[in-house]
Amino acid sequence: MDQHEQVDRRGRVLDAAVELIARDGFDGVRIADVARQAGVSTALVHYHFANRAQLLTEALTHSLSRAEQRLARSAGEVGRAGADRRLADLIDFALPFTDDDVREARLWAELESRAADSPELAEALARLNRRTEQPVADAVAAGLAEGIFHDCVPAEVATAAQALLAGLSVRLTAHDPALDLAGVRELAGRQLSRLVGYAGVMPFRPLSAVLPGPGTGTATSAATSAGTGTSTSTSTSTSTSTSTDSVTERGESTGAGRAAVGRRRRAARRPAAGH
Fold it and tell me: DSSP character for 205?
């Protein structure tokens, strides 16, 4: 097997792991299931991943890498230069817009629910948390250099931003009638503007430009595009069965209580999945 084929097969294994763990929970997935989904042998999965814990952490890393690539590609396509635009896009990056967001969040929930009992997983979780905070810190540092942000410490803002977005996501997914996705992003934008001393309005892209188009699968059931007054309805992806419940699962796996929610979700899924 040449190197290209090895990389391809490893990628297929990780794609399969992301899909199955998100759907059935880590306890409900066997190595043989992943191998079957990926179309490879069980021995090949064991060759690439020493144990199930490594498979979980690398599946999440794989999913996060794909999300980061989408973010970079999107920013490049629409010419999103400037620290304020980068920070606005990173707020959106933390919110549940797509089916991929939902799957990634479920992997975070699985990892967090096990990290307290595993030094290996706790280290992996800390590493991934630092990875998600660093782009925020970099954007803030760039804004200080550009002179549009003032009197703030980038690392502190990044930590606060993560906590803020986590808390808002919990309330959003608890169906708080005072909040919706559009309102949450605007609220986060206002609060982060204050943290970084930004005098302007956070320059979000129109919500309709961020949400996937009809038929592509989106996690958002209803959201009002800021400044347009129009509602964006969603289509449900038949392959992943996401809907309003998908937003709940994406957000519930963010912030305090993610582990408990993950355990409840896995327990609820097992009877239907035959586990």
Answer: P
List the one residue out of 30, 98, 45 whose CA is nearest residue 237.
98
Q: How many CB atoms lie under 10 A from the CB of residue 151? A: 8
CA distance 81 to 103: 29
Q: What is the pTM of this model?
A: 0.66
219 CB burial (10 A radius; 0-12, 13-18, 19+) = buried
pLDDT, tens only, 244-261: 343 433 334 333 344 444
pLDDT at residue 60, as a whole number: 82
Rg (CA), the chain: 19
Residues in a beta bridge with 223: 232
**Distance separating alpha carbons of residues 164 and 176, to the nearest angstrom:** 16
CB 249 within 8 A of CB 106: yes
Cα–Cα distances in angstroms (integers) from residue 198 to residues 75, 123, 146, 203, 215, in the given order: 21, 34, 11, 11, 37
- Report in angstroms the alpha-carbon separations of 228 from 24, 98, 200, 266: 38, 21, 19, 39
d(CA 58, CA 74): 24
Residue carrying structure tokens 């188009």 = 213
Please say whether the beta carbons of 202 and 183 come within 8 A: no
Locus of tokens 């905070």 = 133
Cβ–Cβ < 8 Å for 195, 152: yes
